[in-house]
UniProtKB/TrEMBL annotation:
Boundaries of every DUF6788 domain copy: 55-106
Pfam families on file: DUF6788
Lineage: Archaea, Methanobacteriati, Methanobacteriota, Stenosarchaea group, Halobacteria
Record's compositionally biased regions (Acidic residues): 50-66
Region (Disordered): 44-70
Name of the molecule in the record: DUF6788 domain-containing protein
Amino acid sequence: MSYEPPTPPSELPTDVVDTLNEYSPELLRHVARYAEELAEYREREARLAEEDDEDEIEERPEDLPDDVPSKATITIKEINDNRYYYWQWREGEKVRSKYKGPVSPDD
């Protein structure tokens, strides 16, 4: 671990860097967690929107429950420092989820 402060990415706006530099380590960890979850959410939304545009019917996975549509994708959610798989799909404007199981440490 370096004793020098990290160099912010060039893509990060200066005002964001200045704001983050004022935060406590605890608040920075909250921001990091939120930013990661927000990035996953936006990627998932984009992926679901892309899949809505595709009219292809894919094969239904063997472990897909009967009440989950075949267009569902698997996502990982972190809850209380534990990671879990969830089936996720879009119904109109809403994103629906159904628990699949815990993420094994080998994954």
